[in-house]
C-alpha cells in the first residue's frame, strides 16, 4: 500500500513537471538568473544598445525590481529596444540574453508576458533553445 | 521502487503516446458532464481510425479534463480578441491549430539555433505553421486562425505585413500541391527553396550571406 502511494505521488509529480515544462518551457528562478549572469542594475540605454551579455547582467534586476510590471508593450519596446527572441506568440516581447551558436549551446531570453490589456504581468527568463 | 512499479510506469507512459485521432474523437463527442464521460465514451460510435479508442476511455476522459485546462491555458498566452472569438466557436480546430504552431517552431529549430523575431526563423515559423494547419484542419480554418492571429493591435505594421506575406506563401504552396501526405521534411525543404528564390519576406535577415540558412 505504502509503495503504491509513493509510486502514485512520483508518477503524478512527474506529470506535473512535464506539463509545466511543456506549457512554459524551461525557465530559471531569479536566484538561478543571479548566479548565472550576476545582478547589474537596469539601465535602459545600456540594455537597448548593449550586447547579449550586457543584457544578461541586468536580467536579475529586471525580474526582481517590479517597476516594469504593468508597463505597456510600447514602453518596453521604446526603452529596451526591438525584441529579438520569441516566446510562443509574437505579442510577448522577448530579448535574447544568451545566444547559442548551434543546437548544442543553450539560448536564453528574458520574456515580458502580457495581460489582456497588453501590459506586462510577469517577467521570466526562458530557454529559447534547445531541449 | 520495485520492478513491478517500473513496469506500471512504462505502461502509463506508453498510454500517453496515443494517437491524435482518439483525442479528436472524444473532443467531438462534446461530453459536458465529465462524471458521465466513461460510459458515454464506451458507447460512442467509432470508425476505422477510432475503433481502438473506447479501450482508452479512462485515459481519454482524464485527458479531456486536461484539454479544457489546455484551452484555458492557451487563452492565457495572449490570444487576440479575434482568436478568442474564433476559438470559442471552433475549440477543436483552435487547439489543433495552436498545437501545430508549437510543432512549427520545433521544426524550424531543426534549422535555426534559436527562435527569433523578424528574421529567417520567424519566416520559417509562419510559413511552416500555415502549411501544417492547412494540411490538418483545411484551408478555410487555417486562414481564419492565421488572420485572427495577426489582428494584433500592438504589433508594428511592417512586422504584421511580414507575417501575413509568409503565411500567404505557405497557404499558396499547399494549395498548389494539395497533398495531405506532405511530410515534415518536404515542408522544410519547400521553405528552404522559397528562401533560395527570395520569395519570403524577412525584415531583419541574419543569414543573408549564407542564403538564409545558418
Account of the protein in words:
The complex is a heterodimer of chains A (131) and B (214). Chain A has 131 residues and is α+β, with helices and mostly antiparallel strands. Chain A is built from six helices and four strands. Chain A is 44% helix and 19% strand. Chain A has a four-stranded antiparallel beta sheet with strand order 1-4-3-2. The radius of gyration of chain A is 17 Å and the shape is globular. Chain B has 214 residues and is an all-alpha fold. In chain B, 66% of the residues lie in helices and 0% in strands. In chain B, helix 2 packs across helix 4 (57-76), helix 5 runs antiparallel to helix 8 and helix 7 crosses helix 9. The longest helix of chain B is centred in the last third of the chain and has 21 residues, at 157-177. Chain B is elongated and about 60 Å long. Classes of the chains: A alpha+beta (131), B mainly alpha (214).
How many H/I helical runs of chain A? 6
CA-based gyration radius of chain B: 20 Å
Work out the radius of gyration of chain A: 17 Å
Q: Helix/strand/pairing class of chain A, anyone? A: alpha+beta
Query: What is the strand tally of chain A?
Result: 4
Shape of chain B, please?
elongated
What's the total helix number of chain B?
10
> Largest interface, with Cβ-Cβ < 8 Å?
A-B, 34 and 33 residues
In total, how many domains does the architecture of chain B comprise? 2
Q: Compute the number of strand runs of chain B.
A: 0
